[in-house]
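Worked problem 6 (solution included).
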Amino acid sequence: MDEQRHGITRRHLLKTAFSAGGALLFAPMINLGRYQLFAHSSTEYSARAIRLVRESVVVDMLNPFTLDFPQMGRWSIDPESFTAAHFQRYQESGINVFHIAVGTGGPEAYESTLKFLAGWNAFVAGQDERLMRIDSAADFARVKKSGKAGILLGVQNSEHFRRLDDVDYFYGLGQRVSQLTYNSRNRIGNGSTERRDEGLSDFGVAIVERMNRVGMAVDVSHCGDRTTLDAFEVSKQPVLITHSNCRALVPGHPRCKTDEAIQAMARSGGVMGITGVRMFVKADEPTTIEHLLDHYDHVAKLVGVEHLGVGSDTDLDGYDAMSLEANQRLRAGYKGSYGFREKIDIEGADHPKRTFDLAEGLIRRRYRDADIRLILGRNFQRVLSEIWRQPQPPETPSER
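Solution. The predicted structure is:
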């Protein structure tokens, strides 16, 4: 590879590496300008892939930060227990913004969501030299310049919205994205694994309208097919699929989206993030990063690369790195239609540096640099910036 042609030199790479603050090592390989990016890994990446990741504000629109929830609880209670060594792993991942949404449904949804957001707000406030909450469009540029990890507060359910005013209240607490339903039915609509496929309720329509009004993004990743399509019809703002895959490639899987839904998402101006969850990526074995890339190709060909992004649906290490007990407990929380197999992660995208592997894979699939930058983060930045424009004034009582 001609490094000068891509506007990058070995000296520039080294300077970028050391300025990133991690224990990075660029050892030049003899062939084609490939580099050993991390001192503790022998994996080689092209200069082009490295440059694209380093130049981008990389947004993972579903990454819970850690699947070790007891550890997350300790960080929330004692932010100083999140050490420089912990932070270095997030820096080295190449991800700049983490949408950390989890599902908080059930009878205590309101209280549990309050605790979830309070814990994250306490953690970010206690680690303000390393973490930064993403509240507005301008924060994307700020977080990249600062070298901090951006935390985007969202929830994978909207069951905590008991009434319309709750949307405003949780927006005030920092919530910027809300998935309408998780896998089951709530007052708003149906989830993807619910027995009957029904759409948005009247209350659900009103919630979408209020989310539009305050500037909170509507997410339909786990919604049932009819609820998904209804959201696109009702919303006056773009609607997101933050983390899902293509049912055309995994026929019958309820957590994958139909071509009809993907096309409706694009018409709304939305963006779809692709997950690296094994059973969403392919119905049988083997399942590798090449099959993951097939989903990127499918969306790009169907609606255009400007509607495509990353929503890995896992933390840095992946589900298969969880303890056996935690993994079994997680699997037990889902219906058989999820189709769990021995592994949940996929080969080639099952480690903390997978953003570089994704960039390398997109290069193999002959995506242009500009398109790769869109996928890595610019598309989600654009659509969130549009949704988060100056909120409209509160409604008067007569409008409710």
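Discussion: Residues 270 and 369 are 21 Å apart (CA to CA).
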